Amino acid sequence: MRTLARQITRCPRIFTTDQAQDARALFPDAPPEISALVAGAGSTSPYLLALMQKETDWCRKAFDDPAAAVQRVIDGAGDVAPDQLANHLRQGKRRVALMTGLADLAGAWSLEDVTGALTDFADAATQAALTAGLKAQVKRGKLPGMTEEDANTGAGMVVLAMGKMGARELNYSSDIDLICLFDETRFDPTDFHDARTAFVRATRAMSGMLNDLTGEGYVFRTDLRLRPDSGVTPVCMAMEAAERYYESLGRTWERAAYIKARPAAGDLAAGDQFLSVLRPFVWRKHLDFAAIQDAHDMRLAIREHKGLGGKVSLSGHNMKLGRGGIREIEFFTQTRQLIAGGRDPDLRVRGTCEGMAVLADKEWIPADAAETLCDHYRAHRTVEHRVQMIRDAQTHTLPQSDEGFDRLAAMMDMDLPALRSDLERRLEEVHQLTEGFFAGSTSSPTPAAAPDEHVFDAAIVDRWLSYPALRSARGAELFAELKPGLLARLARATKPDEALLAFDGFLGGLPAGVQLFSLLKINPQLSDLLVDIVSASPALAAYLSRNASVFDAVIGGDFFSDWPGEDGLLESLTEALEAEEDYEARLDTCRRWAKEWHFRIGVHHLRGLLDAATVGAQYADLARAVLRGLWPVVIDEFSRRHGPPPGRGAVLVGMGSLGARRLTAASDLDMIVVYDSADVESSDGKRPLASRLYYARLTQAMITAMTAPMAQGKLYEVDMRLRPSGTQGPVATSLASFESYQMGQAWVWEHLALTRAECVAGPDDLMQEVSGLCNKVLARPRDRADTLHEVAAMRARLATAKAAGGIWDAKNGPGRLQDIELLAQAGALLAGTTARDIASGIAHAEQQKIVSVDQAEVLRKVYRTCWALQAATRLLSPSVLREESLGQAGLRFLCRTHEVETPKELHDHLTRSYAQAAAIIGEALADYVDKADRGQS
């Protein structure tokens, strides 16, 4: 008693009524604080007074330590004989409700303490009632193969707590929403029907024991209707049948319901496994903005069905379903969780306030909005508890009489005007904060184009309804709301008709539209980005039409944050891969993850947030992270069949642009694979392979993992032609063979390529050894004249084989990327060192007196120009850009990347740059051209 008295920080105002005197009389020796508390409770709540009268002796003892007393009731829920269990549970419910109510009114327990105690007893009561029902079936021999000991742990059946019980948020008069399932794999197929019948009977017995109202009261009103297709299915279903239903027919409201689902009684492990299997249904892999409209429709349907629309009038207002009520906060939170929870497991929490806290931490909602809504939620739930506490009524409505409001104010320990003002303020703030979120799903993001703006070709616009993305009624409805704003944006383009054709191509290639259109409605700023992309970059637009889900990344919270670097990317990818158990799922996850980051780099480049050098480095970081993250996954999968790699393992060596850490949006990955079997002849696995064959097939498995066109498309194209002996050699080369070939058989051009080689993935010691070997090969003395002769010959062959494809071809032709790179590699080779970046190679060419200081500076400038063009054109098109396909928006992008004003200035700048570099390289190799010609002849 003293413990609770010390905890009390405030008490309700006390009415001088007979009920207050009756309550005081029950505890004549209680200290003043307790006497005030029971008098206040008795005067305001006939329900609590009745409970005190029925449980006086227990209550008098429980005052000394209410939490411990309630816990003893919970722990002892099933500690009686089956014939006494029903009344025992009813008594337990009375005691828990009484002491929880008194501690709540006294301010001694928080909202979480109150709802937690009520929920813990609901769990215990459900477990006790279920065990009794199952044991009855076992005794009758109706559960094949099961014993009474099995019944204690569910005998293969689980009760899922849904709604407030699942979230541990039960109120005083809550129904408990349950879904009952059994694991059919625990039984022989011939016993399935007998087992199902027994589980159905046990479920009905459990529900009856909890639900039936007698002179001793009831335990919990029990609702079993949240199960799949409840009108025709048994009250306890097989898990497999439930899984099939959710996979094929599950609706958004059922997904939302499972946010709070948790195993509460029976076979908890089986319940956890079922929820794990159901995870893809509840938590979509992509941002699910279509869920907003579904949630909004549910809100409106509830309002219409209950007649709860219109402005707030406190008299009789429904604190749960009415305007600004509890349900609006719950829908707001759960819908945000559904949108992003598939991508971020941290959002998969059950509690409402807990969910808002995580959403705020992840920047899905503003922190101040989360704090405000959480405060209002607690206040709303407290008011709900008080109105239910009056008569144990399943109600959520405010009083309709002045006397009722006086009673509520007393229970809230507030003056009546202050209570009314507080309720009105909170309800209005909740409505404003949540309605703004849902209202975006029904309002056009921008006004329609003004009549004096551009008039588009009606034939193009009219044919949109025939496109796949608009064939569904939902897709067409959503697009109809977006269309005016999109046309207005297109009309503001420099060449509106050109922009319209680009958008038409994007829309025509879009296989489905509901998700994207829903996303654009709730995030209008994405429409501007979409128009920019389709107007400027046909390649990016075509990619976007096939992978519209990458727009998820734009609003994912970190799209414009600092670049994480290669190691940060690897950490993120590894975490994503570890979340998947299936190999193919990991490959698809890797593709989705990589595409989103790839898209981010492209958008940042298109928007002018990154320069060409940074773009090249970021694409390289991404590719290297993919190789480092995927290589162990491929090895693990391959090892399952053939055993772990024999010997020391294998190393992926990046060549060309990958080795130089400078890639474009459309780059292939040049690689070679070097392994060391350490004289181990074969692998040790279920299907062992000779070491040479093992590494060849492992390499092919990696190539397939990268290039296979799966659901998410390809990762990268892989080019292995720089391996020893080119396409004629094995795809994987042993360390000994690699050393022998490079030291004695390799051509000069292969050593030139080696100047840009860098190990990317593999065992650290082997990577160091391969790197050391490359350095050893490059450090060997070589004849200057012979080397430059070979370089001149190679330059002549390249000029013949790969002529320039026009002004926009930055790679092929005299004075362009490949030409400058060749000279830079020659400088590095003659210096006997690696020079993965071209600037270093040009510096070595300068040191080797191949070019002068001034010429070297010109080559560096021209290379930067060529690289900027290459990076930009590969974003606009995966192949060499053609003049006729380059739209006005694309031209503006190219001009901006080269810091010139007009296309003519750009043409002149490129022409002049190519000529300068070609002249310098031609002069540097002039003394070796004749030799090259004689060698070729």
UniProtKB/TrEMBL annotation:
Keyword Nucleotidyltransferase: yes
InterPro entries to which the protein is assigned, alphabetical: GlnE, GlnE_rpt_dom, NT_sf, PII_UdlTrfase/GS_AdlTrfase
Keywords, comma-separated and alphabetical: ATP-binding, Magnesium, Multifunctional enzyme, Nucleotide-binding, Nucleotidyltransferase, Transferase
SUPFAM superfamilies given in the database record: Nucleotidyltransferase, Nucleotidyltransferase substrate binding subunit/domain
Gene3D superfamilies xrefs: Beta Polymerase, domain 2, Nucleotidyltransferases domain 2
Pfam families recorded: GlnD_UR_UTase, GlnE
Annotated Glutamate-ammonia ligase adenylyltransferase repeated domain residues: 36-275, 530-769
GO terms assigned for molecular function: nucleotidyltransferase activity
Keyword Magnesium annotated: yes
Domain PII-uridylyltransferase/Glutamine-synthetase adenylyltransferase intervals: 298-438
NCBIfam families: PRK14108.1
Name of the protein: Glutamate-ammonia-ligase adenylyltransferase
Organism of derivation: Sulfitobacter litoralis
Native organism taxonomy: Bacteria, Pseudomonadati, Pseudomonadota, Alphaproteobacteria, Rhodobacterales
